[in-house]
Amino acid sequence: MANSTTSRGRFGIHGGQYIPETLMNAVLELEEAYDHYRDDPAFTAELTDLFNNYAGRPSLLYFAANMTTDLGGARVYLKREDLNHTGAHKINNVLGQALLAKRMGKTRLIAETGAGQHGVATATAAALMGMECVVYMGVEDMERQALNVYRMRLLGAEVRGVSAGTGTLKDAVSETFREWTNRIDDTHYCLGSVMGPHPFPTIVRDFQAVISREARAQCLAAEGRLPDAVLACVGGGSNAIGSFYHFIGDEGVRLIGCEAAGRGIGTWETAATMNTGKLGIFHGMKSYFCQDEYGQIAPVYSISAGLDYPGVGPEHAWLHDTGRAEYVPVTDEEAVEAFEYLSRTEGVIPAIESAHAVAHAIKLAPTMDKDQVIVVTLSGRGDKDVAAIARYRGEDLHE
Amino acid sequence: MSSIAQAFDASPNGKAFIPFITAGDPTIEVTEQLVRAMADAGADLIELGVPFSDPTAEGPVIQDANIRALENKVTTDDVFDMVDSIRKSGCTVPLVIMTYANVVFSYGIERFAAREREVGLAGVILPDVPHEEKPEFAAAFAAEGLDVVSLIAPTSHERIREIAADATGFVYIVSSLGVTGVRSEITSDIDGMVSLIRAANPQVPCAVGFGISTPGQAARMAAASDGAIVGSAIVRMIGEHGGRCVEPVAAYVREMAAAVHGV
User: Fold this and answer.
1) I need a surface site. Which of A97, A268, A317, B224 has the fewest CB within 10 A?
2) Nearest residue on chain B to A196, judged by CA atoms?
3) Cβ-contact A312, A329 below 8 angstroms
4) Most distant CA pair in chain B, distance
5) What is the nearest CA distance from B171 to chain A, expressed in angstroms?
6) A10-51+90-204 adopts what CATH topology?
7) Mean of pLDDT values over A309-320
8) Looking at chain A from residue 42 to 101, which residues have their Cβ under 8 Å from any Cβ of chain B?
9) ipTM of this model?
10) Domain ranges of chain A
11) From the list A21, A283, A293, which residue is nearest B151 (CB)?
12) pTM
């Protein structure tokens, strides 16, 4: 079950390669290179060295004692991807892809970014490895995440604003694909989530799977048993798939993805794809998308720029179809409350994206027994969100 | 022979001039007038774009046309109804839909193909459906006697043989890297691509699109292949002239078609 990729990258009916012919040889070349290097000892040794000595892995599995006591139910552990270099799980995937791109002879990385975390990670890897870097970001998101824009520029990347469409993550993805069709020879599209055409959903998952590889061993060491539930937020779904992957075969472990419901799944201002979307084909993949009856992609909304995406990775769509994973909606208000709760209770300020998973843990833990265990992935740190949360609470704070 | 292939056959010299417009830009009524006017001006086959919210293969000019059409609330059904009206008025120019996979998929592939046949459309061009994913769409269209047009790009290389071998209607040669839009010059080896296509499939015609705007470019591309496709140059005129675009577009199409037919 864990090894679900069939030829042409299908997860059940999901996935595939719905992209312009211009890019087909580029993705085939990428697939070939990845198949060659994924088990290459020199490649994996170099990546492990970068993980451990540059990104700061393994990340902690932290027992949240105050939260556990306060909620009065399951024992809560936080998988601290927020402690990675650059402050989020995104660095795991980016180091892997940048290394692969270098092996392929590419000298330039392009990337999309929503909250800016993937853009910062890509700019970081490009700086480290001496590669050129261009990051596409929706103009709306550049406004919401101004600090990350400056951070990318500081790292030597060029940030190009995308004003098309809603000026958010989906438009940044579209624009990065357009740029890739324009310049392929020296350029690798360092896609930031488990989405897009095959082989991206598989490559990104494999590089993010380090999260559950560590968490599974750390939980066994700390508790002598596997967790009862693993929670992670889902936009495209890379930290969630990384958190789930090595638990997929452990049938007793509930896998729960927390989607951004925005102002609620009963409103148009939502980004909860599993709960409100339907099957479609977009950005290279067949999966679930928020769309209208004629297949026009919906202008989704979430307070979180990183979850503000109308689709979800094809492997998640498949885990949803098979019932192996559950996907629950979490509203802006619930996420903001969780953001504040974790800050006060544990002295940990989570990314607003990760706060969606914390919010569900706050609901779930009290319903469970005291000898049960849940692992919540904190995909990123919340420094970038402080000003936006202050504004949400009516304080006129500017960075 | 499909009506797309007939479009090439019926042209004075076997070379087709193929204009593209986005349906519903500036309005669905003007689109209907444009189709008739372009047919009268010598267009051999017309590509009708069904607007999509996120047209990832398009440059800014056609992206903007998609936005204008969607702001007018134009739907897939409106486009079918308009074509039905065009056919009932006696206009017989072959028409092919150009849109994105999700527009067809969400409508229902079989339902889309059946509706195309009912109203007299010839098939579909889907820039985000490469050879590997074509069978999912092609079966339903073939069952209605319609074509799913195959695309070949400057990066296709060894893929050309296989793509061309089972192409029907015509082969759309993407002239350049990147997205749609006017280019001052086309540097790809069009002759080399055409000879590989013809070797693999001598029956199917091929036409060049992406970047063409002048009569000279159109004539050169039609001489090297079997036709020239022009989108952004026309869509830009429509954007500039709005509701008064029919006359200037017709004049431009007349000049371009003459260049292609004079090869």
Assistant:
1) A268
2) B128
3) no
4) 46
5) 12
6) Rossmann fold (3.40.50)
7) 97
8) none
9) 0.97
10) 10-51+90-204, 57-87+208-392
11) A21
12) 0.96
